[in-house]
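The instructor's notes for this session suggest beginning with a concrete chain rather than abstract definitions. Hand out the sequence below and ask the class to guess, before any prediction is shown, which regions might be ordered.
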Amino acid sequence: MRALLIAVLIALLAAFAIAWGIHNYPGYVLIAVGKTTFEMTLWVAGFLQLLALVTILAVVWLVGRSLRLPFATRRWFSRFGGRNANGLFNRGLIAFAEGHWEKSRKALERSARRSENSLIHYLVCARASHHLDDDKGIEKYLQMAHQEAPNAYVAIDITQAEMQLGTGRYEQALATILRLRKSLGKQHPYVLRLLVKIYLGLKDYRHIEKLLPEIKRSAAFSDERYKELLVLAYQELLVAASNKEEAEQALTEVWEKVPRKWQHDNDLVYRYATLLASAKLDQRAVKLIQGHLRKYWDDRLLEVYGQLVSTDLKQQLMVAEGWLKERNNNATLLLALARLCMRLELWGKAREYYQRSLGFARTSAAFVELARLSEALGESDKSRDYYLQSLAMQGSVLELPLPSKSLR
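After discussion, reveal the predicted structure:
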């Protein structure tokens, strides 16, 4: 408020000084242009000069503003278009998340034309086309993405490989990923994960085996996942080897490739033992199981052990009875011992092991085998009872009336 009063006071003083000057010192100015003359006081001439200066400055300012107008207009439209493109992009992403693929694709394609970086727009359009089963659309948008950002070939190829993998086109996906690995080297963890998925889809376990050292070093795979892939790969390779003509040699070659640490894995040893048994290589299977069970126990191996016939059945039985000292309540071990005794024609001992096994676990197999043994020993009533109990293990038996006398 004080500043305003001071400004008003200064303006009044200036007006008074100008009025006093005009009255006491009018001055005189004569301007002659050809035969025309202009006469005025000094103060009027000064005012006209001031007015002319202000007019010139105003004209210069207006011209400058006019020259900048197209740039300002263009900038305004650019900002408006950018805001509109962002809105379309957001609507396209929301539609994609909601599963409205066609709506998403249209919005993203429109927003791509107004965006300075349309790569993401085209990649999402390609994924929307994938959900629409539009192969031509996929090819179109991936090509547009490549034209927009040729240096982003990694993102483009990964997108393409994922869609090929999703539709089961493993051979095409493999070609895409191998091309990408050739340019990137072996340092991209996600590309490695995609490659593993492709080989699993192709059931190409030989190549998965070759990738195992790289999988172990990669941060893209946990230790648990590495173990799953290793066990799966060698299990399948063992199965393939067992189907060859020279099964024994083929199985041996695969087993020797298994890292020594994993030759004690229960799942791998069990698969190897069952395949040896299927190939009639009982002696090797017996040695394998005996060696493994010294340190790593697995009841599944006992099931296989009881079905094997080694060259020395007595020794095979003696080893198994040694295990019984620490596991005398193991039903699977007792059943294996009973079966070995049957092969050695130790009928009384076999019956004892069968009965002890059934005391800990009532299994249909043990009942049937004991029934057959009892029948062979002339114990028909016991045999019939064991058979009935075996049937009861497989399902309920109705208590229906039976004839009291023979119909003969």
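Then share the key points. Residues 149-202 form one domain. The two ends are 135 Å apart (CA to CA).
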